[in-house]
Design a protein that fits this description.
Number of strands: 7
Radius of gyration: 21 Å
Helix content: 10-25%
Strand content: 25-35%
Structural class: alpha+beta
């Protein structure tokens, strides 16, 4: 199965915003694909990002990454965070949210040879009248 993390991130983001709180994400910057300003990363290799509507432009949360533009020290910066790099999402005002466990990237399943059933299902479906 695919990871449930992107779905939970979107749900928690919506829940936090609906309750008029500020959604923050904690990101592990050691993972590949993370594009954040390195001067704001702490000594543990993590960064906290405010992803509220008032703080970012063009927020896009899909099943693979969170992307947006934000200002750091007045400089517009494009941010990309793969969903696997998100350690947690929480509300700044009360700390309510969710911390995620580390996930291993699942290996793709090995291709299976086609079976005779597969050949039959390759035909176009047909309708017939049943009386």
């Amino acid at each position: 199965m695919t990871s449930n993390r992107p779905y939970l991130l979107r749900a928690f983001y919506e829940w936090i915003a609906d309750n008029r709180c500020t959604p923050y994400i904690l990101v592990d910057t050691h993972l590949p694909g993370v594009l954040v300003p390195q001067q704001h990363v702490n000594e543990d290799g993590q960064i906290v990002l405010n992803i509220s509507e008032s703080a970012v432009v063009g927020l896009n949360m899909d099943n693979y990454a969170i992307r947006f533009s934000a200002r750091f020290g007045g400089v517009p910066t494009d941010i990309q965070v793969p969903v696997g790099a998100v350690v947690g999402i929480y509300a700044r005002e009360n700390g309510k949210g969710m911390v995620f466990e580390a996930e291993e990237t699942p290996e793709p399943p090995e291709p299976t040879p086609p079976t005779s059933l597969g050949k039959k299902s390759a035909k176009k479906p047909a309708l017939r009248v049943v009386k």
